[in-house]
Every structure is written in structure tokens, then in C-alpha cells.
Amino acid sequence: MSLIQQETIAAIATAVVPQQGSVGIVRLSGNTALDIARVLFSAPGKQHWQSHCILYGYIRHPQTKQIIDEALLLIMLQPRSFTREDVVEFHCHGGIVVVQQVLQLCLSQGARLARSGEFTLRAFLNGRIDLTQAESIADIVGAQTNAASQAALAGLQGKLSTPIRNLRSTCLDILAEVEARIDFEDDLPPLDEAQVSQQIRVVLTKITGILATAERGELLRSGLKIAIVGRPNVGKSSLLNAWSQSDRAIVTNLPGTTRDVVESTLVVKGIPVRVLDTAGIRDTADTVEQIGVERSRKVATAADLIVLTIDAADGWTSEDEQIYLQVKHRPVILAINKTDLVEASKVEYPSEIRLAINTVALENRGIEDLETAIFNLVASEKLVATNSELAINRRQAAALTRAETALKQVIVTIEEQLPLDFWTIDLRGAIKALGEVTGEEVTEVVLDRIFSRFCIGK
Question: CA-CA distance, 296 to 301, in Å (whole number)?
């Protein structure tokens, strides 16, 4: 792929935190990147301005010659750079003031402020990476767990794009065979319909296998939303505090203390989890508490998993039953709390609740059992029950689903003995959908949507 000549862009490529951070990087990419660096950077001695070299020196104001910072300059000339354009990076002292001054100097020399994800977009447009690899870069930056990072790294290494390209290549070969029979029917032997059907079924099997990783991908990227619900004063807030090893929620002996949803972010056996401690659900005349109860009901409705907490001393009450009826449409784990007061085996509850654990939240007991129960429940839903390194995202899953549907239709067409022209329609649809995954078939609107989610310096 030939390089697309574009104007030089610039951006701060590192997080900028006041009075923190030892290094701040300002990155430029484009035809004039090196020229701008020569204007702004003074390298004492006989240092060589060569590709993949680091120069030591000073960043100076081009008019006043005032020293802005003592810095390093990294040079990466095309095509041996991330964007396959000339790239330079000013490695400055961290903080806000210096890096912003350097960025403004770059802009004053003709560079344009980069848009979100524009460096990665240029890498894609110049053939440095494909679209799945570009999305994996964003996933690595946003990874919340080691498992998410490893899945993103697999995508960056081409472990998704390679099989997708192979499947697309197979479909292209089939299409070529079919179209050859249409154009040169009298000169070629008849098409082996059984063999074509078998080839398509093999492709379908592989697509189905890749699609099976979609839920895992969503779980690793977005995390699991867990709502702790129950009557007032059963120990929901104590459970959250014990679980998060913090005092996120206020705990008292007074019922109705929690008036709003309290959130904590945790990692459970490699899965990112957002735990939401909700207000005790009950009928109340207190206006503020009523608002909290209503928010609790909404959170419970939207949660991926419910931890229904009850008081072992009270047993399963009619109020617990009412709450359970409101949340039973979601996966439920029953947390029988305060089991230091009453033996848990004496607590009866609906037999349809498959997972129940015993806790003493105030003593941090039962947390490990709770995490194991959560992981087992998630595994039973087949969200993590896969040995695949892959974890596709929603866009990729949608494209693969279209390819799957098109190929299934090709098989129907073959079985119904329809003319070869009908085969080509759905074959082209499958090829287009597979190309959308890797970016070989993609619209500008889709690219804008994908790269707008990136940070500006990436």
C-alpha cells in the first residue's frame, strides 16, 4: 500500500498530570515533522540526525531562542515508524506547562493538532496495521485486567486478522470458481457442488468458533456489573466494604442508612467487576429514602448479576421474597449474612436459587466463596468457558454474523439447485462482511466511529 501524503499532526502522547509524571512526550507525524524538529531542537556537539537515533539537547523558542526544556529527541523516518510517515517525539520533563509549551511551538511551525486516534488511523491507512490490530491498540490502553490485556495483545499480533483473511480468501476462491463456470460454462468441467458446500461449511464452523468469543470480549472490556440488593440492615454495605477492603459504604445499626447507590471497582479471578451497593429495598415514607429505593430497583434491573443478601437471624422473609421476585430474571447468588449468629443450614430459601454462600461481612468471612460463586456462575453462562486467546468486539461480531448468515444462505441456494448467479450474491455478501472485520472493506463513517474512541495522542 502506498503512503498517503498528509499534513503533519502533533499531540501530547502521554498522560499529563499537574506536578506529577517524570516524562511528557509530544509526538509529530508527517512530511514536515523532521523540519519542525530541526527548528525547535538544538543538539550540541556532533550528534547525527538519523532514523532511530536519540538526540540530547534543548528545545528553544524559534524567535527568542529561550530554552523551553532540556530534552531528548527520538527520530523515526518513514517507512520504519508506527504511522509509516516521518515521526519525531520530544521527550520532555513531565507535568503540564512544559509539554503544552512544546506542543504550541509545534503548532506554530505548521503542524495541526491531531484528532482522536489519528496516529493509529494513519498507521491503518498506510498499511502498517489492519483494523483489528488498530482496535486492539485501544483495547490494550483501556484494559482493566491482565486477561483483557492478553486478549488485546493477541489481536495486535494478528491472531484474529490472520484467520479472518484466510476465511475470506477461501470465499474468494469459491466465488472465482463459480463465476468462471458462469462465464466459461462450455469450456470447464461441471462445478463440484458437494465440495463447494463442504468448503463453505468448514468456513462456517470457523466463523461460529470465533463468534463464540464475543461474550468473553464484552465481559473483558466492559466488566461485570453486580448489584448487592436486599432489605435494609442485612449487611449489604458491610459486604461491599469487606469485599473492596475499604470503607466505601457507611455502616450503622440503623436501617435505611444507604440512601444512594455506592460503587466499587474490583477484579474477580481476572474479570473486571463493578460492584453496586444499593439502598435497602422496602416501603418507606421517607422521601429521600424512596428515591434511593427506586434507584436500587433500576440498578438491579440493569445488573448482569445479583447478590441477594439476607439476614441469617431473620431467615427468608416475605420482604426477601418480594425482592427476589423483582430480580429473579437475572442470575442470582444468595448471600446469607451474619451466619455467626445463626447456623446457615437452618435458613430455608427457594430451591430454584442454585448458588448460596455464607458470609460474616463484619469479619470479612465468605468473600472468597462469593468470588468463586461469581466465577462459576459466569463460567456456566459460557462467558469465560473458552480456551481461545481471542475476544472479539461488538463491531467484529456484527460483521461476522452477517458473513455467517450469507454463507448459510449460499448452502440453502445450493441445496435448492438455484442457478449459479444466485450463489454469487451471498458469496459477495460474505466476502464483504469478512473484509469489514479487517478493514479491507470499510466506510469512512465506520472509521470515524472507531477512531473517535481513541485518545488524542494515540
Answer: 9
Distance of alpha carbon 313 from alpha carbon 143, whole angstroms? 42
Report the DSSP pairing between strands 112-113 and 67-76.
Answer: unpaired
Give burial (CB, 10 Å; 0-12/13-18/19+) of 65: exposed
Q: How many CA atoms lie within 13 A of 359 on its CB side?
A: 32
Q: pLDDT (tens digit, 9 = 90+) per residue, 44-90?
A: 998 999 999 999 999 999 999 999 999 999 999 999 999 999 999 99
Task: Please answer whether residues 378 and 224 qualify as being in contact, where contact means their C-beta atoms are separated by less than 8 angstroms.
Answer: yes
Cell numbers linked to 17: 498530570
Q: Is 175 helix (H, G, I), strand (E, B) or coil?
A: helix
Strand partners, 73: 55, 90
**Is the distance from CB of 228 to CB of 307 less than 8 angstroms?**
yes
Rounded-to-integer distance, Cα 191 and Cα 177, Å: 8
| Cis? peptide before 18, omega within 30° of 0 | no
What is the pTM assigned to this prediction? 0.73
Calpha distance 258→269 (Å, rounded): 28
Q: At what angle do helices 161-183 and 420-438 cross, to 10 degrees?
A: 160
Residue 219: all three cell numbers together? 465481559
Strand partners, 153: none
What's the CA gap between 209 and 194, in Å, rounded? Answer: 23
Lookup: cell for 251: 455502616
Cα(348)–Cα(344) distance, integer angstroms: 9
Q: Which residue, chain included where needed, has cell 454495605?
A: 237
Spatial distance between the Cα atoms of 369 and 262, rounded to a whole number of angstroms: 22
DSSP characters over 231-265: STTSSHHHHHHHHHTS--S---SSTT---S-EEEE
Containing 67, the helix (H) or strand (E) segment is strand 67-76
Instruction: Measure CA 286 to chain center.
Output: 41
Work out the angle between the directed axes of helices 131-142 and 444-451 (0-180°, nearest 10): 20
pLDDT digits (tens, 9 = 90+) for 159-201: 999 999 999 999 999 999 888 888 776 677 778 888 999 999 9
Other Cβ atoms closer than 10 A to 17: 11
Contact, 272 vs 220, CB < 8 A? yes
Task: Answer for the pair 410, 430: CB distance below 8 angstroms, yes or no.
Answer: yes
